[in-house]
Amino acid sequence: MGRNSSGKIGEDAAAEFLTDKGWNIIERNYHTRQGEIDIIATFGGYIIFVEVKTRLENSLFLPREAVDQKKQAKLIQAALMYISSHEIGLLQPRFDVIEVIASKNKEIKQINLIENAFGL
Fold first, then answer.
1. Domains in the chain, CATH or no CATH each
2. pLDDT tens-digit map of 53-68
3. Rg (CA), the chain
4. Fewest CB atoms less than 10 Å from the CB: which of 12, 33, 45, 91?
């Protein structure tokens, strides 16, 4: 499963997962010079910036391990850019990570939501 292929499948599965939980997805694949935010959503008084990581079920590493401090810093900068250019009202920012585990056949095996994975 190629990186772009698995990433798209994982992001689509994550978006459906969040929508099913009642989240309002307001943007996908938001691009800035600082980087890309996979999903921006609102739920329960928060504006949530979501990083989606997809891995094969036999991977040696958990998907969340790919969201290191360097990646977190880029996501925070991109989120600050979003906040400065959009009216978010009283919504509080939050950073979540979604892990998507897929089979070689691109079948989604597991989705894990890690709320408040890191902060500003």
1. 3-118 (3.40.1350.10)
2. 999 988 888 888 889 9
3. 14
4. 33
pTM exceeding 0.85: yes
The two structure tokens encoding residue 108: 């989604």
What is the spatial distance between Cα 21 and Cα 24, in angstroms, rounded to a whole number? 9
Give pLDDT tens digits for 76-111: 999 999 999 999 999 999 999 999 999 999 899 999
